[in-house]
Amino acid sequence: MTAENGLNSFHERNDIRLGLVGAGSVAGLYVEAAAGLPELAITAVCDVRREAAQALAAPLDARVYDDHRAMFAAGNLDAVVITSPHSLHTPMAEDAAAAGLHVLMEKPMATTVADCRRMIKVCADSGVRLAIGNLQRFVPAVRQAAEILRSGQLGRPLLITERRAVRYDPESRPAWFFDPELAGGGIMMNIGGHSIDKAQVLTGEKVVAVNARIWRRPGIAVETEASGVMELSGDIQLTFSITSTGLPPQDETEVVCENGALRLSHTGGLWMFRDGQAVHLKDRTGHDEIVTAFRDQLVDFTGSETPSVTGDYGLSVVAAVQAVYDSAADRTLQRTEY
User: Which of 3, 28, 173, 165 shows the shortest CA–CA distance to 86?
Assistant: First the structure.
């Protein structure tokens, strides 16, 4: 299968057959999203926990596997969504590409920049489409905020402040999240990637340098807190704090521009501030909006154009996360590696 023929045969189909690798909570969101797309059917589900795969597959009348290679070899698929533990992303993408399957890879793309590059190359060499599940550009409130910033009505973005507070412990998440080899990191890799993605989508710029620190709570093998400053191209500064120490849940982004500001909050929605006036533009982001974002991502992945979130973009997020870890280890300013 050549790259051109493979992509054309994919987006011209009206009965795309999709397989899921991983049957956790994120896979459940893909199931909800696909339900609104009559041209797409989830026909196979794989998880090493066979009972989890069976539970997700049963309402779909989908085939069940506990080995992704067996699922790929069985055929009757056009594409796969991979939501496995992070360090397995690249080898699973290689297996999918070898089987001629297009790949939507859940974020983070991989745990290292080198693995991101391997994934990009093997998919390109095999002629299959690769998209990465960095979701922020599909979230309705983020999309509207990005449109406002691109319009120039607030002037050039100068400063972004990103605050996240979540529960991050073995009682609230799967055990593999706290295995450094499988997860590749902790709260920065898993939650901080959203913050990096959001800042890059809002500004259209990339993180180029990082000065950061991370901390671990006793008894946990991955970082549970992270903070620092990132420099984006375009001379934009991002200050971030990502914590799990028991503060109330928070997901808030403020963008200060030359002539005004935006505040984007998971609970408060989207606000614009200009000339002493505050305007509420959009309500909070709820479950329905998240499912809509996943659905739009699937439409983008299966469309006729190059996916919006390419392998190169996914690599840029992983590179910024890796720069956080390198900066924290060396206590120095780190440039991102693209």
Answer: 173
